[in-house]
Amino acid sequence: MKYNIRKNWLNTLDTLRTRPVILLPFIVVAFLECLSLEFLYFSTRAPLSFVANPIIRKFFGEAFIHYPGNLAIVPQLFYYKQMAIYIILGVLLTAISINIFKNIKNGLPVTARAMVKNSLHSYFSFLIYGILVTVLMFLLKTADLFVLPKVLNRISTYFFNIPDSIYNITVMLSLFFTNMILQVFLIATIPVIVIEKKRLFKALAKSIALGARNFFTVFALMFLPFFIYLPIVFLKSFSTQLADKAFPEINIYISVFGSILSVFLDSFAIICVSQFLLDKNKDVKGKAA
Amino acid sequence: MKKTIIILISILIAVYVILTMLGSGGEYAAEKLFYRAMKTNSKIMANPDVVPPKLLKDVENSLKKVVEKYPKAESAKAADITLTEFYIYNKRYDDALSRADSIIKKYDKNTALLSTAHFLKARSYEKKDQWAKALKEFEVLRDDYTNTQLGLRSPLYVADYYSEKGRDTDARQAYNEAVQFYKKIEKENSKSMLGYAASTLTLQAYLNMGDYEQAGSFLEETVNKYMSPMAIMQLLPQAENIFVIKLNKPEKAIELYKSIIEKVKDGKLKKVLQKRIDQLSDKKGSVSVSKS
User: Fold this and answer.
1) How many angstroms separate the CA atoms of B183 and B178, rounded?
2) Count of beta carbons in the 10 Å neighbourhood of residue A30
3) Do A24 and B8 touch (CB under 8 A)?
4) How far is A43 from chain B (nearest CA, A)?
5) Residue B186: pLDDT above 60?
6) Would you state the pLDDT for residue B285?
7) Can you say whether residue B34 is alpha, beta or left, with left for phi > 0 and alpha for psi between -120 and 50 degrees?
8) Closest Cα in chain B to A63
9) Which candidate, B155, B135, B158, B153, places its Cα nearest to that of B194?
10) So what's the pLDDT on residue A289?
11) pTM
C-alpha cells in the first residue's frame, strides 16, 4: 500500500504545534551550538585570546588571529564543534525528543526526569552511533571530493568547459545529496532504539533495511526539511566569497540562523521518520492480527 | 517550556555582553576599523574617477581614528602608512609629507616602518617634481636602510626613474652605480639572504640597462654561488629571458641547465631542467635542419 507522505507531514506539524515540548531537546542543541559559536566569535579577543591565540597561530597561522581572518575560520571550527556536540549530546537529546513523542502518541505522561533517565540507559549506543555517523559522513565527503573533481575535470577536458561557479555548486549539491542518501539508511536507528527498545546494531540493521525497502518514501519524508535547509548549506559553502562581498560577520549570522532553523527541521525530520516507523509497526501488527 | 527558552536566551545574551565588554577596545577594535577603511579604500582605488568626496573623507577619518584612538595597536602603524599612501594617491603631497615625517618621529626604532616612511616621502617629492629632494630620501634609504627591501631597491629605483624620463646618460650612470653598490653589498654579505637579494638586483640592473651579455655571465655566477632549488627556480625565468629570448643563445641555457643538473640533488628540479633541455635541443635541431 502506498504510504501517505502528505498525511505524515501534516500529522507531524500538528504534533509539533500542539506539543512543542518535543522541540525542547533540539532547542538545547541549538543553545549549545550558539554558545559555542559565541566562544568561537570572541576567541581572538581578551580574555579568551590568551588560550585560543596560541592554538590558532599554531594550526592556522598568524593571519587568523586578526580581524577579519579570525572570522574566516569560524565556519570550519564551528562545524567541528557541531560534530562534537552532536556526538556527545545531540544524539542523546534526539532520543529524548523521540521518547517524548512516543509517550505523547501512547497517551503516557511526559516527565522530564523519566525521559532523560530512559535515554541515558542507552547513552553508550547513542555515542557509538554519533561517532559512526560522523565517520561515515567524513568518509563519504572525502570520497566525493576525490571522485567528483576528477569527473568534472574530465567533462571540462572532453566535452565543455564548466565555469567555477557551476563547479562549486555541483560539488556542494553532490555532498548535500550524498549526505541525504546516507541519512535515508541511518535516520531510523535512534527511533528504533527508543520505540522498539532494540540494541544499537540491531537498530542499525533495521534502519538500513527500512531505508532500502522504502527508499523513496524515507527520501521523500526527509526531502522537505533538507530542501528548506539547502539555502543555508549553499551560503555556508560560499562563506569566503560572501564575507568578501558583504561583511565578514555575515557567516556568523548564517550559522546562528542555521542552528535556529535546525531546531525545527531536525525535529520535523526525526518525528516524520518516527511517525513512519510507528505506522509501519501498526501495519505489521494489523496484518499479523 | 517558555521559561526554559527565556533562560537559555538570557544566558546567550549575558555571555555575549560579558565577552563584548571584556574584549572591547584595543587591538581587535583597531583591526576592525582599519579593515573597514581599507575595504572602502580598495573600492575607491578600483574606480577613482567617480569617487564621491564624502567617501574620501570617510576613509581619511577612519584611518585617522585608528591612529589617534588606538596609538599602541599594530593596526595604527599600518593605518599611518596607508594614510600617507592615501594622500599621495589623492595628490595631497604636503599632507603625505607631514604624515611621513610624523611616522619617522613616532616610530624611530622600527626599521621597516621608517624605510617605508622615507620611501613615501621620496615618492611625494617625486610626484611634486622636486627630484633633488626625492633623491636625498633615496640616498637615506640606500645608506641607512640597506637591510630593508625598499632600501636595497632604491638605487635601482633611481636609475629606472632616469630611464623612464629619457635621461639616458643619467640612467646609464645610475645603473652603473647601482651595479657597483649591489656588488659591494653582495661581497660583504656573500651566501646570505641579503647577498642573494643584492645579486638578483644586480642582474635586474644589467637587464634594465639592456646589457644582456653582462646579465648572462652574472646570472651564471649567481646560479653557481646560490645553488639552492628555491634560488634556481626563481632564476630560471631570467635564464630563459636572457639566453633564449634576448641573446638568442639557447645553447648557453642548455649548458647552464646541464651544470645545474650535475650539482643539485632535487629530483623534481632535475626533471624540469631535463625537460627544458630536451625542448631547447629539439628546437635547435629543427632550426638547423630548416637552415640546411
Assistant:
1) 8
2) 23
3) no
4) 9
5) yes
6) 62
7) alpha
8) B31
9) B153
10) 63
11) 0.79
